[in-house]
Design a protein that fits this description.
Elements (H helix, E strand, L loop, with lengths): L7 E2 L17 H4 L12 E2 L1 H7 L1 E8 L2 E7 L8 E4 L6 E3 L7 H9 L5 E3 L9 H7 L5 E4 L13 E4 L3 E4 L3 E5 L8 E5 L5 E5 L3 E2 L6 E2 L1 E3 L4 E2 L2 H11 L6 E4 L5 E2 L3 H15 L12
Parallel strand pairs: 6-7, 7-8, 8-9, 13-18
Antiparallel strand pairs: 1-2, 3-4, 4-5, 5-6, 10-11, 11-12, 12-13, 14-15, 16-17, 18-19
Helix pairs in contact: 5-6
């Protein structure tokens, strides 16, 4: 019997190692933070995705492109290619990678690293790393148990922060996942890439915080306060969220501070300390 070539979960986009059959379950989807669709677990492969999907690119600002799968697939998140003097970094990851995107990234200076906020976006990081010579993939050590594909490029960083060159800093916030991470870009007036850890909401003037977004499980006051404190030392004007159109265009530090206050008031709690940025 021929192994199924690295099956991909259609619900969350996580890629699994080769096997005689797809897994019977996807632990990422079985977890209370995600869900198994009503129709049940379904699987695809990278080759199958390439037949009827492509990667779309959008210029967000100088040196910053957003990447999405078109038409949408799985969770529907966006990834970002960030150009810096010390190398280009892919923030978040997609379940699809294709030849045109590989060629475009190489034409724009290649890729030096990949970093991902939390297990819902781990997807096909091994394929992306291999396409660029095995570049390191930075995942927080507190979420190591959720990795399905034990790829040699993985770097399980630990602690509260980790620098990626001179302009980029990974920040562990916790909350949504124990190792839930955001990325700060110091270029210009500063940008925060928030993943699902601080979710940019529909009004684009606030962020919010949940253990599970689809299943509506909130976080407690301590977890939300910790997130506020974790990002407060970093100055940022813009916040890019997980999904297209979810961008806070200005006053990013103030947006986070007032969003923490609003959330805590809504659950009958109060702020624990100040969030003044340095």
């Amino acid at each position: 019997m021929t192994d199924m070539l690295r099956p991909i979960c259609c619900a969350c986009g996580t890629q699994y190692p080769n096997g005689p059959a797809p897994p019977s379950i996807c632990p990422i989807c079985e977890d209370e933070r995600q869900f198994v669709p009503e129709a049940g677990q379904a699987w695809t492969t990278l080759d199958a995705l390439r037949r009827d999907h492509r990667i779309a690119r959008t210029i967000e600002s100088p040196g910053l492109h957003a990447l999405t799968i078109d038409p949408g697939f799985a969770i529907g998140q966006q990834a970002f290619l960030i150009k810096t003097p010390t190398g280009n970094v892919l923030w978040e990851c997609l379940a699809l990678i294709d030849d045109s995107t590989i060629a475009w990234i190489r034409d724009n200076g290649g890729l030096s690293a990949i970093a991902i906020s939390h297990p819902h976006f781990y997807t096909a990081f091994g394929e992306w790393s291999d396409a660029f010579g095995g570049v390191p993939v930075y995942l927080h050590a507190d979420d190591a148990e959720w990795v399905r594909h034990r790829h040699p490029a993985i770097r399980h960083w630990s602690g509260e922060t980790h620098a990626l060159g001179s302009e980029l800093t990974l920040i562990r916030c916790g909350g949504h996942f124990e190792g839930g991470t955001v990325l700060h870009w110091a270029e210009g007036r500063g940008t925060l890439f928030s993943g699902d850890i601080l979710q940019v909401v529909a009004d684009r003037r606030h962020v919010s915080f949940m253990r599970s977004y689809p299943n509506l499980i909130p976080l407690d006051a301590g977890a939300v306060t910790r997130i506020g404190h974790a990002v407060a030392p970093y100055s940022f004007e813009t916040i890019h969220g997980s999904f297209p159109g979810r961008t806070v265009a200005g006053d990013g530090n103030e947006v986070v501070a007032r969003s923490v206050d609003r959330y805590l008031r809504a659950i009958g709690a109060s702020r624990l300390g100040n969030f003044d940025s340095t």
